[in-house]
Batch of 2 targets.
Target 1
Amino acid sequence: MATPASDLLSRINSISGCFDDDYCDKQRYAVKTKSRKLNALLERGKKNRIISKKLYCDFLAYRWSPRVFSEKPVTHDELDSLFEAARWASSSYNEQEWRYIYAVKNSKEFSVFLNFLTKSNRQWAKNAYVIVVLVGKKYFSHDGSHNKSFQLDCGISLGYLMAESALRGIAVHAMAGFDKGKISEYLKLSDEYEPLCCLAIGHYSSSLKAEEITQRKPLDEIRFNGLNEWTKAQAGNRRDSRAQA
Ligand SMILES: Cc1cc2nc3c(=O)[nH]c(=O)nc-3n(C[C@H](O)[C@H](O)[C@H](O)COP(=O)(O)O)c2cc1C
């Protein structure tokens, strides 16, 4: 029977014609060597998450944001692979306005970066191997005007980073609980840049207890075929909230 990782491997093999051999070998290697771990993670994620449509990128549904990390270091190579994925996001005017600034455990800066976080985030994020700050550039390079999409673009980039992390079995936990002022002051950010998010990155821990695996809204609650479906859903929501009041 095909396991999730072997399934993934065969899918990568099936698209290998699209890429040069060296690239494909690296991809196959990554999946093969991680397959046992990947399977364990997929199985854990799968317990609670039901995919309602067939997905080629089903690994996305089996990632989750842990608050427990293993002590195993995340190598610079692994970290750079995540940033490489983040690099390929699309953006308005191809501005690529995301900047990732990080501190690695045992470095002098790690405690400084930890201190950017709210107390409750600090409590668990201190066990991560890397703390990252995602900073967005607010203005277009070509004419200096305000880029209305800068947060969205940075979000897409973060999504790519998370997708790569999911495939590699590396844990990424995003955090909005941080102090913008502290970050701006330490990094000497000009008005051009805004801190958008922090990330705790590490390897998933095998000593995970019963960590909460979150659920997702059903498809019917997030996609609507035109005004008719949208209006019906809105009317339903209003009825529900009146009934609850
Ligand atoms: C932009 C963003 C900000 C978040 N902020 C925090 C946070 O400050 N603290 C925290 O514990 N989790 C935070 N999370 C994690 C979410 O709670 C988590 O992603 C969500 O519950 C879905 O769970 P999953 O990622 O495990 O699937 C954040 C996630 C995102 C994307």
Note: Residues 64-65, 121, 174-177, 197, 214 surround flavin mononucleotide (CB under 6 Å).
Target 2
Amino acid sequence: MSVANEAADPGKGKTKMDEGRVAKGVKPVAKTNSMYEQYQKIYPRSVSGLFRNIKWWVMGLLLTVFWVGPWIRWERAGAAPDQAIFIDLPGRKAYFFFIEIWPQEVYYLTGLLIIAAIALFYATALAGRVWCGFACFQTVFTDLFVWVERKIEGERNSRITLDQGKVNANKLGKKILKNGVWLAISLAVGIGFSLYFQPVPWEALAEIFTLKASAATYGAIAVVGGGCYVMAGFAREQVCIYMCPYARFQSAMMDEHSLIVTYEQWRGEPRGKYSKDADFSQRGHCVDCGLCVQVCPTGVDIREGTQIGCIGCGLCVDACATVMKRFNLPTDLITYDSVANQNARAEKKPEPTKLIRPRTILYTVVLVLVCGLMATSLLTRSRLEVNVLHERSPLFVPMSDGSIRNGYTFKILNMERTNNAFVLTTRGVEGATMEVLGVTERPVKEVLLPVEGDRVGSFRIYVSVPRASLHGPTSDLEFVLINKGTGESVDYDTLFAGPH
Ligand code: SF4
Ligand code: SF4
């Protein structure tokens, strides 16, 4: 039965569960002495319309990006991986097209998370829970799993009947098939995720299927795939209602001009069942068909007002629009609109949606600033860095010629693809000389240190200083490193220890 036909004859084809919901518009409360309401499984009904189409498109786009991502190649010079998006855990690096992040640059990741958070707040201020309703992975995979369920077990009423019926071959077969397809999707999700951590996806796939991959890879597939199976197959709306923290504080980002899904109470009430002689000029437009509740993936009755369970997916807007068209009534009884617009329409003074307001201006400024800072920092960042570790035991060694010697572990991060030679000198302590294990044979004031491209060069350096140059237990010592080819230089301040 179509949505519109069911609206015209709402009692037809209803299950007991529907009766409870449709008659009162609320979930039936189980007769129990328990303090807690019994969990009611949600059986979302299919619907077509603008928001449903947008959800299909967004789902298709996001799943394509997720599964295709690891296969995109990006030529990089030298021995660097050619995978456009790659997280190299053993090498402790991350690659994203032309951007390469070393462990020392993890603050870029923080910057990225800040940008994502501001963008999310911005989207919420403009269009409410648009992320939750359309792009959140929980929504996307739940949608996909419900689609599979519908294809195998049938429309909402068939699924309810199947679940309430006795176990027989038909029920068992459908449940096994459905769970098999869910598991296959979950496996594909787990494998797709693991490919982002491996440099050559086709080799990684071959290893996975011939059981030659590492235990960590199988562990990641099990955790991510298992999570997908449980969250999208069983937990579903409970993740949004009970587990997701974002739902709790997103209202702080909204105001009366943010677009949200609402029911036009002033137009819909008093609601009543449809009858052939219904005069809609004398009653509310809601025919109490319950379709808005039946299509809702979280089981919300939006006619009761804005609720935390509403993820803003707009499916009830589609459902109600179909019903309204059937009765030649204006659509938008349930609408994706701002509260301010709704109030204006109730007073017959509709206004255009106000997109530019202090809150959105603030988010725009902050977003542009943070993006600008990140871009400038990425484009101008140095590709040379040093780390110096002063030897602690012993702090210093008095030498037979009267000088004092300190040891350092000196690391040069050559973040360029080419092999480079670096000139190292010291500043700050008069008469300091250096010996580098495996590089110099006698104390020198200046030493040339070679480091391969895209590698960390580690050197053991002994600095000796005449005792007369020291005027206390510690002196400031500065290492100066210059890339011989490019002239790029970096200084590192440390201490030179001596006797009291
Ligand atoms: S709001 Fe629309 S879909 Fe929901 S019960 Fe009323 S008429 Fe039906
Ligand atoms: S009430 Fe409407 S917009 Fe909200 S979650 Fe349910 S179907 Fe989606």
Note: The mean pLDDT is 88.
